[in-house]
Specification:
Layout: H1 19-29, H2 32-45, E1 49-51, H3 57-76, H4 86-111, H5 116-121, H6 134-141, H7 149-158, H8 164-174, H9 187-192, H10 203-216, H11 227-237, H12 239-242, H13 247-256, H14 258-262, H15 266-273, H16 277-287, E2 310-315, E3 320-325, E4 333-335, H17 337-344, H18 350-387, H19 389-394, H20 404-411, H21 415-422, E5 426-429, E6 432-435, E7 443-445, E8 451-453, H22 454-466, H23 476-485, H24 492-501, H25 507-510
Parallel strand pairs: 2-5
Antiparallel strand pairs: 1-4, 2-3, 5-6, 7-8
Helix pairs in contact: 1-18, 1-21, 7-8, 8-10, 11-13, 13-16, 17-18, 20-21, 23-24
Length: about 525
């Protein structure tokens, strides 16, 4: 075997992103709430960055100039020493100590510790000026973390009227209950997982404890081992349902024909039970009051409220739609002048100046990146407003194709910049709140030569299904023909794909008997 060494020269081009550029793209991608949190973090860690109220900069400059002139006059005044006035000096010291103590107690009792830079630079605290602390308000208004399903069930179990052994076994069972309230772990497995320092329970012992858990804990149905048992527990415990005329039919449907009901095989259920279709439909309607996941009611899983990043509204004077960014909640940032002067002050230690210089660079970059984000987002919004006027006036079926590559070419920026600008952003339009990315999609031409976006095709598909006869729902092939009559020609598999995206079941599941 022979080994050779050689040298080669190769010419090539490589693109490397500087850390600043990467961070700038991250700022561009953030939604307004995430950007607000990012700014708060920077304010906490960067002493050279501060907020200000619009219009207050001129007043701050005048105040700083007066303070500087006052300090110069004080420094030029000769010091007067009165050897016989020691008692007066002590009296002045006492009054100064009292006044400073009162100011100190008032500030700290009202708002807690001030930030380090306020004490270090002597800048007045916004809380002393009577302003509200936005950070403290946010912390006070933040919702508390809700207890888990297991924790809430254990709290209920503490007050259950059972003996000590049942209480111990019930605690073991509750720890295996899942978030939807069902107990899917076999009792034999739970018995094997019992602590070594305690007697190993039998499945019969766990069965008795489980019965106590199911009858004691709320909501009804918690602790069931499957959907059928969950529904029966609720039916047995609900007096309104148990005494209604639909109770026998519901019990039969749940106990013996639940799978057929789930798959909409109602004629088969009617043939097996002898009930009429009217009775079966009435029982199914009443069963909707029952829950297949009772544990979900213990945890608030409502999605967080969407805060739009921009508002699109009609301007009657210009006869056009305009986009206005909702960035008023973002704090106004600026560089602290005292720290900026500190970098040029040779009397300050070099290590301190280097630290301040680094923070000044970070603060300057952040301010520039936020401004660049605002300009880029506004340019993208303007393109959307001009291209999608029909959507704002007519609805989803009038949405036009708007590929990101087309917007990037129009604005002279990279398509990745457009993608980051619209990521995680929402806009408030005359048609409701929509993700900004929704307005960017491809499409096709209809038979009449009109451009139609894929989103508009999905809206047309939903409109066709909503208008169908529920006793004879349209198959996917029939939907293809209905769309073709509207000038939209797509394949059957495309119909099935869009139907699944819209959470619309198949024709057999949509049929009403």
């Amino acid at each position: 075997m022979r080994f050779d060494t050689s040298q080669q020269m190769k010419l090539g081009q490589h693109m490397k992103l500087a850390p600043r550029m990467i961070q700038s793209m991250e700022i561009l991608q953030l939604a307004s709430l995430a950007l607000q949190e990012r700014i708060e973090q920077e304010l906490e860690s960067n002493v050279t960055l501060e907020t200000f109220e619009p219009g207050s900069e001129t007043a701050d400059v005048r105040r700083e100039q007066k303070e500087r002139e006052q300090e110069e006059r004080e420094s030029e005044r000769p010091m007067q020493v009165d050897e016989g006035g020691a008692a007066q000096d002590f009296q002045r010291l006492d009054s100064m100590e009292q006044s400073y103590s009162e100011a100190f107690e008032n500030e700290y009792s009202a708002s807690g510790l001030r930030r380090f830079e306020e004490m270090d630079t002597g800048r007045p605290s916004s809380r002393l000026a009577g302003e509200r602390d936005a950070k403290m308000d946010a912390m006070a208004n933040a919702p508390g973390r809700s207890a888990s399903v297991t924790d809430q069930l254990l709290e209920q179990w503490v007050f259950a009227p059972v003996d000590d052994e049942t209480r111990r076994l019930g605690r073991m069972l509750i720890e295996h209950i899942e978030d939807d309230g069902l107990l899917r772990t076999p009792l034999a497995t739970i018995a094997d997982r019992a602590p070594k320092d305690a007697p190993k329970p039998t499945t019969d012992d766990l069965e008795r404890a489980l019965k106590a858990v199911q009858l004691t804990l709320e909501p009804l149905g918690v602790g069931a081992r499957d959907t059928r048992e969950c529904l029966l527990l609720q039916l047995d415990a609900s007096e309104d349902l148990d005494e209604s005329e639909h109770a026998p039919v519901m019990r039969a449907l749940i106990d013996e024909h639940l799978d057929d009901v789930v798959h909409n095989r109602l004629p088969k259920v009617a043939q097996a039970t002898g009930y009429t279709m009217e009775q079966i439909n009435g029982a199914i309607h009443a069963m909707r009051r029952l829950s297949v996941a009772p544990g979900r009611s213990l945890v608030d899983e409502s999605p967080p409220a969407i805060v739009p990043d921009a508002v699109i509204e009609y301007d009657e004077d210009q006869d056009r739609y305009v986009a206005v960014q909702m960035d008023g909640r973002l704090p106004n940032l600026r560089i602290n002048r005292e720290y900026a002067d500190m970098v040029r002050d040779r009397a300050v230690p070099k290590q301190t100046r280097e630290f301040v210089k680094t923070n000044l660079a970070n603060a300057t970059w952040l301010i520039d990146a936020i401004e660049q984000r605002r300009r880029t987002l506004q340019r993208v919004l303007n393109v959307v407003v001009d291209a999608q006027r029909d959507f704002f006036e007519q609805g989803p079926q009038a949405l036009k194709p708007l590929p990101m590559t087309q917007v990037a070419d129009q604005l002279g920026i990279h398509v990745a910049t457009v993608s980051r600008a619209v990521a995680d952003k929402h806009v408030l339009t005359p048609r409701g709140v929509h993700p900004l990315r929704r307005f960017f999609s491809g499409g096709m031409q209809t038979d009449s030569g009109e451009d139609v976006s894929w989103e508009a095709i999905r809206a047309a598909l939903k409109d066709v299904i909503d208008a169908e006869d529920k006793a004879k729902p349209l198959s996917d092939e029939a939907i293809v023909d209905a769309l073709k009559e509207r000038g939209i020609e797509i394949a059957r598999r495309t119909v099935a794909k869009y139907r699944n995206q819209l959470d619309i079941p198949s024709a057999r599941m949509r049929k009403q008997f």
